[in-house]
Amino acid sequence: MSVAHGIRKLGVLGAGQMGTGIALVAALRAKVPVLVYDRSPEQVTKGLSLMDKLLAKDVAKGRITNEQAKEARDRVTVVSGDLGVRGFRDVDMVVEAVSENLSLKEAIFASFAAELRPDAILATNTSSISITKIAAAAVPDNTNAASEAGKKSAGRVVGLHFFNPVPVMKLVELISALQTTQETLDRARAFAVACGKEVTTSKDVPGFVSNALLMPFINEAIMCLEKGTATREDIDTTLKLGMNHPMGPLQLADFIGLDTCLAIQQTLYEGTRDSKYRPSILLERMVDAGWYGKKSGKGFYEYD
Ligand code: CAA
């Protein structure tokens, strides 16, 4: 029996590529009103223009009508400034899509727990950080995590991992923390399906299934480059034409963001203590240099 997600209003924290994409599929496919918050006004402007561009393209390609694009756009409100998570007080679910930083996410989930309705689902789009740790942060300071109140607060936290570009990639990875309730999982899954996604589930291990497999692959490609085994073009072309990957691994790393790849690899390495996950020195140095890939104009390749 399919479960109703019951989301009448969604909150999205972060108006980057991921947050904007999540807001778009929620408004267009699941047809729910969405409030997106980002503390940076520049990010809000960028997010809105990306959304307008993607909707206009769908109209131009005849996938949706002008009317449907307008309705989707009208469902989305993007705000910035000092409001913070207080703006999410009336949402049924919030998806956090900020950068990969545990202490930042812990602070956010503590304020979600304090400010949002007690029955709101608190989802994180983290690519690798422990959902169980994030859920623990949603237990108020003066509450025993094993008490009914503690279990209730942490039980609504779930991992809902979208892939970039969100409107194009068909998958959502659903991750249960130790504390997540079955009801939270069922509703989060139903919501992802309403957004047009197929859902796989993973245990709460570092990197889940997706990045426990993807990141060693990307790292090996970087080490091939570092050792001079082949040029960047030949490494990428080998995987594109030899294995039918849509992008080569170095191009994909630039696309994901080298800082994000490094943060995920560090989480994998620290979380497993397995040397197969140790990030390459070249990746570390490129991030030290501020070469973050496509978003900064330079990574393994150069971008306008
Ligand atoms: N946002 C939204 N849509 C985008 C986009 C973006 N940033 N970039 C491309 N697209 C759309 C295009 O508009 C186009 O849509 P239409 O079919 O409507 O025209 C479609 O994607 C194909 O684009 P292009 O024809 O320009 O280029 P392409 O065929 O090379 O495809 C791609 C681009 C979809 C990005 C493809 O190269 C691809 O699938 N690459 C792999 C992406 C991938 O692996 N993503 C997962 C990364 S891992 C992750 O996100 C999670 C994590 O935890 C790290």
TrEMBL record:
Coiled coil: none annotated. The keyword Oxidoreductase applies. SUPFAM superfamilies: 6-phosphogluconate dehydrogenase C-terminal domain-like, NAD(P)-binding Rossmann-fold domains. It comes from Lyophyllum shimeji. GO terms for molecular function: NAD+ binding; oxidoreductase activity, acting on the CH-OH group of donors, NAD or NADP as acceptor. Belongs to the 3-hydroxyacyl-CoA dehydrogenase family. Residues 9-204 form the 3-hydroxyacyl-CoA dehydrogenase NAD binding domain. This is 3-hydroxyacyl-CoA dehydrogenase, C-terminal domain. NAD(+) binds at residues 14-19, 38, 100, 105, 127, 164, 295. Keywords: NAD, Oxidoreductase. InterPro entries: 3-OHacyl-CoA_DH (IPR022694), 3-OHacyl-CoA_DH_NAD-bd (IPR006176), 3HC_DH_C (IPR006108), 6-PGluconate_DH-like_C_sf (IPR008927), 6PGD_dom2 (IPR013328), NAD(P)-bd_dom_sf (IPR036291). The keyword Calcium does not apply. Pathway: Lipid metabolism; fatty acid beta-oxidation. It holds the Pfam family 3HCDH_N.
